[in-house]
Every structure is written in structure tokens, then in C-alpha cells.
Specification:
The chain is an all-alpha fold. The chain has 12 helices and 2 strands. The chain has one domain (2-42, 55-240, 249-328). The chain has a two-stranded antiparallel ribbon with strand order 1-2.
Length: 329
């Protein structure tokens, strides 16, 4: 039942939007205050028993909740009823909620059905980052922990050096994948995604005006930066051995940082059991396992995101973890 925590970010956004005033900070307080605190206070969840089958439909139920709460926040901001500080903080909160929605999209894009692939793209469109559906599954999972992967942070690489590399490299990789698959015409998914994204932007401009569109783009930026910071945390400094020129060993749990902090994994559908996810990418979130012998993050994702924002602190903590991991290997 801990996976029902996935609804906490959109509900915090809905409450903040409705109450306004001081309440607009609720998504920030929940994600960067309550969640990391509870992660540290509660025992880790290292049980590998799969969740019940009905959880398969949890991502589907999440989609209307996210769309309605994000839409409500944008309407409130566009209405002019909020002061500039309230509107700015609510835009930040909306971006954090959309970052959580990206994680649900991540679950869906790994499923084989066309409907679920389309639903993943719908969620990614709320972050203006639909090319991720291509790059993550067909690029990142193939090249993770190698120099070819723009989403794998190198040892000693600060977050602020990593971000431009992964933002541009991920888009370029997705385009190359699609051109090789289907050329540059309408069959190219990135072409279709760009067309649909353009329609969404135009619709928002017409219905919510420039302020509403600015809020949408602002929260998209927050969500994308959150996503790529999570990528930074998940693979920092880990590398697969090159077995022959241009060929690398098979992906194993040791090539991703694992975390079994209870609350984070409830909110993020076991995303932090990332070691198992990369070793067995087809495994559904409810089946992902804790690997005791995988590299372990010292805290849950929310706390690690904050740590990554301060490179000297990040290096002080994570380079020590990385050295321990290399000695164990």
C-alpha cells in the first residue's frame, strides 16, 4: 500500500493551489522536507516480495490526477488572483509535481503496449520533454555506465557540468535513434512529438494567455532539471568495463546506485531500486528488488537531490562512497 504515496505530490499541489497564500509552498515542503525526514526516521524497505497484481493499474489511475491538478494550478496562476511570489512558488511546486509524473511516465514507457507508450508520451508532454521516451529506453538503457551515455555522470563531474551535457546529448541521441529507425518524416516519433507539443503550447496560449503559458514552460523547466538531477544521482561515477574496443560488459546491479528508503520508493514507484531496474529493465515497479551488494546511496532521493546542488558536499560524500564501492569490487 506504500505505493499509494505516488499521489502525494499532485495532492500537495492541489491543496497548495486551492488554499493559496502560505500553502503554495506545500509541494516544496513535502518533497524536500517531509519525505527525506521520513526516509531517515523509518526503517528501509528491503523486502523483495512482489506487490499485488492490481498495482499494475496504478500508473493509469495517476494520469488524470496529474493532468487535473497541473491544469488547476496553471488556471490559478493565469487568473492573476495570486501575487507574483505566490505564482512563482506555485510554478515551482507544479514543476516538482510534474517531475513526479515523469517517474510514472518512466514506468509506462518500459511497458510494451502501444496504449501505455502513448500515455507515457502524454505525461512527458507536460514536461515538454517527450524525446525522453525514445532516448531513455533505447539509448540510456543500452549505453548506461559507458562514455556513450550522456545521462551517466562521470566521477568528479559536478552537476552543473553534467546538466548541459545530458540535456543536449539526450536530445541528439534520441534524434539519431529515430532517424536510423524511420528517417526524418512523419514516422519519426520525435517529429510527431514536436507537432503534438506545438499544438499543446498553442492551446495553452489561447486558453490561458501568456502568463499561463509562461507558468507551463517554467514548471516544465523545473521538472526537466529534477529529472536530469535524478539521472546524475543514479549513476554518478559508475562505469562498465570495456571488454573489447567499443564493447562493454553486460549491465549489472553494480552499475547503478541503489536505495531502499521506504518513503521515497513509495512516492517514486520503486525508482530508487535502480540497480534492479537497469539489470532487468522489463521488470514492473512492483517487482523490483533490493540488492544488498549493489552500490548504496546514503540517503533517499530527495536528500540526494539537495546534496547534488552543492558540489563540494556532494564530492565529499559520494566520492567516499565511490571509493568504497571500487574497493569492494
Amino acid at each position: 500500500m506504500s505505493f499509494l504515496l505516488v499521489f502525494v505530490p499532485p495532492l500537495a499541489l492541489a491543496l497548495g493551489t486551492t488554499l493559496a497564500g502560505w500553502a503554495v509552498v506545500l509541494p516544496v515542503v513535502v518533497i524536500f522536507g517531509a519525505i527525506p525526514l521520513l526516509d531517515q526516521l523509518l526503517a528501509k524497505d528491503e523486502d523483495n516480495t512482489p506487490g499485488p497484481a492490481w498495482l499494475r493499474w496504478l500508473p493509469h489511475a495517476y494520469i488524470p490526477v496529474h493532468l487535473l491538478t497541473l491544469g488547476w494550478a496553471l488556471v490559478r496562476i493565469a487568473s492573476g488572483e495570486l501575487g507574483p511570489v505566490e505564482a512563482g512558488v506555485l510554478t515551482l511546486g507544479a514543476g516538482l509535481a510534474t517531475a513526479a509524473a515523469i517517474n510514472v511516465a518512466h514506468e509506462l514507457m518500459h511497458r510494451p503496449g502501444r496504449v501505455e507508450q502513448a500515455l507515457a508520451a502524454v505525461l512527458m508532454s507536460t514536461a515538454t520533454y517527450t524525446h525522453f521516451c525514445v532516448e531513455h529506453v533505447q539509448g540510456h538503457h543500452k549505453n548506461v555506465a559507458t562514455p556513450r551515455d550522456p545521462a551517466t555522470a562521470r566521477a568528479g563531474e559536478a552537476l552543473y557540468a553534467f546538466l548541459p551535457r545530458t540535456l543536449m546529448g539526450g536530445l541528439r541521441s534520441a534524434w539519431d535513434i529515430e532517424v536510423a529507425r524511420s528517417g526524418t518524416g512523419w514516422r519519426n516519433r520525435l517529429v510527431r512529438y514536436a507537432f503534438a507539443q506545438g499544438l499543446l503550447v498553442a492551446a495553452l496560449l489561447v486558453t490561458l494567455g501568456p502568463v499561463g503559458l509562461a507558468a507551463f514552460l517554467g514548471q516544465s523547466l523545473v521538472a526537466v532539471l529534477m529529472l536530469e538531477t535524478i539521472n546524475y544521482v543514479e549513476h554518478y561515477g559508475l562505469a562498465r568495463a570495456e571488454t573489447a574496443p567499443g564493447r562493454f560488459e553486460r549491465v549489472a546491479p553494480r552499475h547503478s546506485w541503489n536505495s531502499s528508503h521506504r518513503v521515497s520508493n513509495g512516492v517514486l514507484l520503486n525508482l530508487a531500486r535502480h540497480s534492479d531496474h537497469h539489470a532487468f529493465a522489463a521488470r514492473a515497479f512492483r517487482e523490483l528488488r533490493h540488492h544488498e551488494d549493489a552500490p548504496q546511496l546514503p540517503a533517499g532521493y530527495s536528500a540526494m537531490l539537495l546534496l547534488a546542488l552543492v558540489p563540494p558536499l556532494w564530492f565529499a560524500v559520494m566520492d567516499r562512497q565511490l571509493a568504497t564501492q571500487r574497493q569492494a569490487a
